[in-house]
Amino acid sequence: MKKKSVTSRDVARLAGVSQSAVSRTFSPEAKVSEKTRRKVMEAARELGYRPNTIARSLITRSSRTIAVVVYSLENPFYSFMLEEASRFFRQQGYHLLLFSAPASDGFDAVLEDILRSQVEGILMLAITMTEEQAAVVSDYEIPVVIINRTVDYAGISQVACDNYQGGYWAGRHLASQGHRRVAYLAGLPATSTSCQRQAGLEEGLAAAGQTLHACDVGNYQYADACQATRRLFTHPTPPDALFAANDLMAIAAMEVLQSEFQLRIPQDVSIIGFDDVPMAAWPSHSLTTLQQPVQTMIMRATELLMAQIDHPDTPPQQLTLPVTPMLRSSVRRA
Hints:
Layout: H1 8-15, H2 19-25, H3 34-47, H4 53-60, E1 65-70, H5 76-91, E2 95-100, H6 108-116, E3 121-125, H7 131-139, E4 144-147, E5 157-161, H8 163-176, E6 182-186, H9 192-207, E7 214-217, H10 222-233, E8 241-244, H11 247-259, E9 270-275, E10 288-291, H12 294-310, E11 318-321, E12 324-326
Parallel strand pairs: 1-2, 1-3, 3-4, 4-5, 5-11, 6-7, 6-8, 8-9, 9-10
Antiparallel strand pairs: 10-12
């Protein structure tokens, strides 16, 4: 025989409170006394009651769900971002619905599914969005915040670090330490982050009277970065320094150079990454890198999204946050 489901009426009867008090207890935005909350929670535990969030959403017309769109969680930088976002929205009484958008199709691959899910907002972690896609989302009046990507569209909030200045610093720093053959290990070619970091690198080198020696694409992924590193360093005039568009690729390059080419870091090759993921500071890597202010980025992005959900007339904002050089031992000193 199928077990009868426990209802809020059952909880109210056992707790000796009204059914509305039970509903308020399980609604994060509602006020209820601590005494009532304790009685309701004790009765709910005893009966094994779980609130029906789907039914509540039909009544309140609020799904209390945020869509989070990611390209890949291979990079620990985005795993940490997702964890921080989850913690923030949970405190606000919201749930996260995760969508994975492949690099080949991008946002178009998941847009229809997101719209069917009736989410209240969209948080995009490193997803490339075109101006046309941004306009479509705006037409649906769904609040959107993009983190770590930029799009030339003022109607969507964006939070990113100063990728250009990070690249510029890398170019100037490598040149100042005597390097003359600086290569760039790019991320996904069409992404704003990779393009801005390369532009900054080239300008930083130009300020020192140099040009970019070589460039290859690692697509922000470990395996692709390994292949790109092999191509760069089998050239007759290999680089003497490498700036990678993220730490994951920088670490891949370090491991290939040490294990396959028997090159020493930094004596033979200097390497700079971007992000400052936890493993960058491990003694086995000790990677010089550009630190993105990940906690501040998530805090500002989630606050922007909540403001637009609570007050739809809140104007979109485009924020650019500074990066911080983290000097470790992967760059040779002049």
